[in-house]
C-alpha cells in the first residue's frame, strides 16, 4: 500500500514537472498559469503546493531536470573525445552550445536566474563543478595541466562556460554569439596547459 502511494506521488510530481516544463518553455515563467497547468494534467493547485511549495519550487524542479539533462549530454559528448583534456574542452563547448536551444534559453538561462538567483549556487551546478574538479585533478596529476589549485581551475572553467551560455541566451543573435563564445572558452582553457 505504501509503495503504491509513493508511486502515485512520483507520478503526480512527474506530471506537474512535464506540464510546467512545457508551459515555461512556451509562455515563460511569469506568463505560465498554475491553474491552467494543473488543470491540463487533471490535478489541483493543492497538488502543486503539496509537491513543490509554490510556482518557484516547481520552476526549481524543472530547471534541475533540464540542467541534469544538459550535464549528462555534455559529459556524454565529452566522453567521446580521444583524451581527458579534449573531453573537458568539448564538454564545456557542448554546454555552451546548448544555450542555442530555445527551451534551455528561456527556462534555465533567462527565467531560472531571474527567479532562482545565481546559477552557480544551484545544486545541479555544484555536481558539475565536482565532476570538473575531478577531471582537472587527474589532468594535473598527469602533467597535462599546470599545477594550479584544482578547485579554482574548475570554478573558472565552469564559470566561463556558464557565463558564455548566459551571454548567448541574452543576446539578440545567439547563433552569431555562439562561435565567439566557444572560441574564447577554448583559448581561456588552453592557458591551463602545462608547458
From TrEMBL:
The name on file for this protein is TetR family transcriptional regulator
Per UniProt, residues of the HTH tetR-type domain are 10-70
Mind telling me which InterPro entries this protein's record contains? Homeodomain-like_sf, HTH-type_TetR-like_transc_reg, HTH_TetR, Rv0078-like_C
Q: Name one GO molecular function term.
A: transcription cis-regulatory region binding
Instruction: Report keywords, A-Z.
Output: DNA-binding
Q: What is the lineage of its organism?
A: Bacteria, Pseudomonadati, Pseudomonadota, Alphaproteobacteria, Hyphomicrobiales
* DNA-binding region(s), chain positions: 33-52
**Record SUPFAM superfamilies:** Homeodomain-like (SSF46689)
The answer on whether this UniProt entry bears the keyword Aminoacyl-tRNA synthetase reads no
